[in-house]
Amino acid sequence: MITPVQIKWADAPPSLRKGAKFAVLSGDPGAAGPFTIRIKMPAGYRISPHWHPTDENVTVISGTFSLGMGEKFDQASLKTLPAGGYALLPAEMRHFAWTKGGATVQVNGMGPFVLNYVNPSDDPSQAGVAK
Predict the structure, then answer these.
(1) Is the residue at 121 inside a domain?
(2) Distances (CA, A) of 63 to 14, 42, 99, 126
(3) Domain range for 62
(4) Which of 11, 41, 73, 89 fits as disulfide partner to 56, beta carbons 3.0 to 4.6 Å?
């Protein structure tokens, strides 16, 4: 069991743009097996089109979180989920996300949790890496 004040937030991993915070609630998202994480994003935070090799279960804890499907970021196609909203994103489904006013989401699934960007130049972990 864990209370909200006991959650240990840290900077998000390099696969996410700077500005987000990240907390592991259970498991190891980098290893095979079940995991639960939370991602806290500031207003205007965007995640470019990407996919995961495993299913991703997303629950909005606070704020509003907008999701869209496809290989190109399309603001008009976003569907906004309020706190309490849920989305199942099947393995390999191309999707993207944005939060207008900030949001905290909980993601659970089977690891390893990997983000594969549709456009490799959108991968923040590759910023400044010589090609």
Answers:
(1) no
(2) 23, 10, 8, 29
(3) 35-114
(4) 89
CA 32 to chain CA centroid, Å, is: 18
Indicate the number of domains in the chain. Answer: 1
Q: What is the CA radius of gyration of the chain?
A: 14
Q: What percent of the chain has pLDDT over 90?
A: 95
* CB-side neighbour CA atoms (13 Å) of 24: 11
- Count the Cβ atoms, other than its own, within 10 Å of residue 56: 19
How does pLDDT run across 67-113, given as a tens digit for each residue? 999 999 999 999 999 999 999 999 999 999 999 999 999 999 999 99
Q: Indicate the pLDDT class of residue 39, thresholds 50, 70 and 90.
A: very high
